[in-house]
Design goal:
alpha+beta; Jelly Rolls; 3 domains; eight-stranded antiparallel beta sheet
Length: about 600
């Protein structure tokens, strides 16, 4: 058993690394944490995503990927202290920055400020979470040595009363280890994001001396802690895979530690954005929506599948100059053998709405996902446009978030995208036309003023200039696919219907091992393995293969279900491939996104 943990003094060095329990399967926590301890870390850091733990108001989940306390106990067993960042906002390239979508079910209430309509649900959540966190503090025999107030608030707002409310609420609920804030290294960010009496820390990836100059100008003598040392970066669909040279990251880390400061590597191990939780960014300069890919590899020292990289060894060498390195554990490098899995059953999405809907809603105007109480995935909107209209008029969706397959009388008519094609032509016959929109929500924006955006159809649907009324909407529950009526896939009249469809195959394995799934012929969709959603895929790249962790598999037959949204050619999409190596895709253009000035 490790020695009891103590709270470090302000001047004591902390060698920490970020690993998020919700991005790694619990069966893999111990192995990954053991490797980080062997790299030279003495502490790990994690966020707490509110929307994972309270998916619906008053319904709490702390099981499986959400077993927050189990993760802290495992870290303690591995000899690691913990820094916890409970938000309520976390950014983290996580859907909505961790804020639950239901916060805006009835109105677009202000977020991240001292408005009572926001503080009331935050306080209720903290009444549940913080006592759990408090019992794991080093002051009570646990391993938590530091707790963060909010996250990078100086990059967002200026409500000092809000930050004070959070800090006071943490201490009132039993937090007695040091509180900290974390912000970018500019005067503006630090002025707005810090709290009097609470230690300020910085987030940066380069220009160490320059970054700390801003902190010391405002807080003379403040001990140096880089809460996020960006040793890599995340990726968006269509924009290339970011990497940071291992020697460059190690050199900057050595520079930082050589000043006597402390560090938290962001990330030490990135993991995966499983399911529907990957977030998004929005570029205000180009008004472009940028959804984050499923992999959160981050070019971190430990790869997405938990293998030490060249960066791991370079950073371990640096950390060895400042601490005694534990021995290296054995690393299991075995992977599933390369093989093909036939997709031999096809079930159109529109043929099984009754089995998947969480309840049909009839309404005059199309509601958003939040108004439907539907957090993620897909909803099907239907209306009838009266006829006759002999001239083609554009069918458009205002405020589409984020993508819609359009069907007219059951036939595909086009795909509308948030930042792409904005209308499809439609001519209605004498009897009118049945219009169906299969609307997919990608990740909610997790950083900046668009955090808290609604999903689905958030404006009017128009045919020409005329607003269309009279809608029925089916939010589809994609968390549980056990109700899919696969017996209908044997009927050609059903299986050959066009549009998004589920495809099923069986992967046979002798022994569960890690692997990677590739979808040749697939364009865009989602993958489930034995009922667990791995996440999204999209041939826009850069990611070409989804990580398949071994705990999802069992010896023998394993069911794989793919929801392919765009590919109608059944012959072009009749198999998926299991591979023994990852493929995170083409390289991003040379840049240094971890620098505030580049």
């Amino acid at each position: 058993m490790p020695a009891p943990f103590t709270v470090p003094a302000a001047a004591d060095r902390i060698l920490s690394g970020a690993v998020h329990y919700f991005r790694v399967l619990p069966e893999q926590w111990r192995e990954r944490l053991g490797l980080l301890r062997a790299m030279g870390l003495d502490t790990i850091e994690t966020y707490v995503p509110w929307n994972l733990h309270e998916p619906r108001p008053g319904e709490y989940d702390f099981s499986g990927l959400a077993d927050f306390e189990g993760f802290l106990r495992t870290a303690a067993d591995c000899g690691l202290r913990a820094i916890v960042r409970p938000g309520p906002y976390i950014c983290a390239e996580w859907d909505n920055g961790g804020l639950p979508s239901w916060l805006r079910a009835e109105a677009e209430i202000p977020l991240r400020c001292a408005d009572p309509r926001f503080l009331a649900p935050v306080d209720r959540w903290f009444d549940v979470l913080i006592p759990m966190l408090a019992r794991h503090q080093a002051t009570r025999g646990g391993n938590v040595v530091m707790v963060q107030v909010e996250n990078e608030y100086g990059s967002y707002g200026s409500d000092a009363a809000y930050l004070r409310h959070l800090a006071d609420g943490l201490t009132a609920r039993g937090i007695d280890v040091p509180l900290v804030t974390a912000d970018g290294p500019t005067e503006l960010m630090l002025t707005a994001g810090t709290v009097p009496g609470v230690r300020a820390t910085l987030n940066f990836g380069s220009r160490t001396a320059e970054s700390y100059r801003a902190l010391h100008a405002l807080r003379p003598g403040e001990p140096e802690l880089c809460m996020e040392f960006w040793d890599g970066w995340f990726d968006h669909y269509g924009l290339g895979h970011h990497t940071r040279d291992a020697e460059d990251a190690a050199k900057t880390l050595d520079e930082l530690l050589g000043r006597g400061g402390s560090v938290n590597l962001y990330m030490a191990h990135g993991g995966t954005n499983f399911g529907f939780h990957a977030g998004a960014n929005h570029d205000p300069a180009t008004s472009t929506y940028l959804p984050t890919i499923t992999s959160y590899d981050y070019d971190a020292p430990l790869s997405e599948d938990g293998r030490p990289t060249a960066k791991y060894w370079a950073i371990r060498e640096v950390l060895g100059r400042y601490t005694q390195l534990p021995p290296m554990p054995e690393v299991d490098e075995r992977r599933l053998p390369n093989t093909l899995v036939a997709l031999d059953a096809r079930l159109p999405l529109l043929g099984c709405i009754s089995e998947l809907t969480s309840g049909t809603v009839a309404t005059a105007t199309p509601p958003s996902f939040e108004e439907l109480g539907h957090a993620y995935g897909i909803a099907v909107y239907r209306t009838r446009i009266p006829g006759p209209r002999g001239k083609a008029e554009p069918l458009s969706v205002e405020g589409l978030r984020d993508r819609a397959h359009v069907f007219v009388d059951g036939a595909p008519a086009g795909i509308l995208e948030r930042d792409g094609l904005d209308a499809v032509p439609l001519t209605t016959p004498a009897g009118g036309a049945e219009v169906t929109l299969v609307v997919e929500a990608m990740g909610r924006v997790n950083y900046g003023p668009l955090t808290g955006e609604r999903k689905g159809v958030t404006g009017a649907v128009k045919h020409g200039f005329q607003v269309q009324h009279g809608w029925t909407v089916d939010p589809l529950d994609l968390e549980d696919l056990s109700t899919l009526p696969w017996e209908r896939a044997a009927d050609p009249a059903v299986s050959e219907l066009p549009g998004p469809a589920f495809h099923r195959g069986v992967l046979h394995v002798d022994e569960p091992r890690d692997g990677f799934l590739e979808l040749p012929g697939g364009i865009k969709g989602y993958v489930w393995v034995n009922g667990f959603c791995l996440g999204r895929y999209w041939n826009r790249g850069p990611q070409r293969r989804l990580y398949l962790p071994w705990p999802l598999l069992h010896s023998g037959a394993n069911e794989i279900i793919v929801l392919e949204l765009d590919q109608d050619d059944v012959e072009a999409f009749d198999a998926l491939a299991v591979r023994d190596e990852p493929d995170l895709g083409y390289a991003a253009p040379p840049s240094t996104p971890w620098s505030f000035e580049d």
